[in-house]
Specification:
This protein is of the alpha+beta class. It has one domain: Alpha-Beta Plaits (2-Layer Sandwich), CATH 3.30.70. Helices cover 32% and strands 29% of the residues. It has helices at residues 14-29, 58-66, 68-78, and strands spanning 2-8, 34-41, 48-55, 87-88, 92-95, 98-101. Helix 1 (14-29) runs antiparallel to helix 3.
Amino acid sequence: MLALTHFVVPEPVEEEFRAEARDALAVLAGCAGHLGSRLGRAADDPTTWVLVSEWTSVGAYRRALGSYPVKVAVSGFLLRALDQPSAFEVLLGDGPGGPTSQDSDRAGSQPAG
């Protein structure tokens, strides 16, 4: 599962935002089911940022966000996020083992085929 969280960060508060992001990534890294996180900034707009995190499942992601340590350390950081969908199922991929495909876990969805 991928979580993509978008932010618009005015340049005067960039350092504060980056410090908050470092703390948030450190806490997320300790959560069960967390596979990794990265923070990136748009090449064409220095105020546009994205946090990409990977999780073993939607359940692991939701449990992490609901845990006390994440609520305390990450919630303030996430208040800066834009209000848009952020959790995505991985249905197709390509990695060291070659191409992958999996069906959706959502009820009533069509196969990834």
